[in-house]
Amino acid sequence: MNLSRRSYALIAALVLGLLALAYAGSRGARGGGGGGDAATWSADDPCLKDVPVPPVEYDGPRLTGLAHGYASESHLGGRMRFTIDATITTDRRPLALRTPLAPGSVSVRVCAPHGKGLMAQARGLSPRSVKGAGARSGRIRVTRADPLYFTVELPRSALRNGYGMRDLVKSTPKPGSNDAADYPVLVLTFTDPGLDKPLVSVSYKPDSAPTAQALGAPPRAARPPSSTRS
Fold it and tell me: pTM for the whole thing?
């Protein structure tokens, strides 16, 4: 059977169209998996659901995690140490605390992204490297202008389920992700006799409300937590 050039062109166009549809379908299937990962992480995560977070309009004392990560003891190597830097400030009334800060006053919990469970946990850690402009003879006065800074070290014994220090700052399931939801969540708690209740800092809090991702939209990119270092 003899076919004209026009017939050959029509057949080629049909084949290319079918190939394009097949490729688009395979991409859609893979893309749906990514959206599903983002939608599965909610405030019902057992690792985070009991964590109290101050409301945005709260003007009392506030704890904020500044940076966390692991490094060797010196530039020549040595034991790896995972440290967390934090600050305490207040918006309205000054806060008076004794120095040194109470031993065993800090607790740390690290939750895996997307509801994958506990990565590390330690209680009764003691803050060190305490700094504040308002420190005077065993007391420190914390104000908005003069916050208190401290560092705490997470011991290796705090690691759970075979995790390593490096895992506590890595994103999953997408390495090097720009989405904060792909990184572990650091929960820091500080207690002191000078406080009415413990102060809590959470590096990222999943939302329990329906999201665009749950409705099938692609995940919204966000900057990863600024409080990670290596």
Answer: 0.70
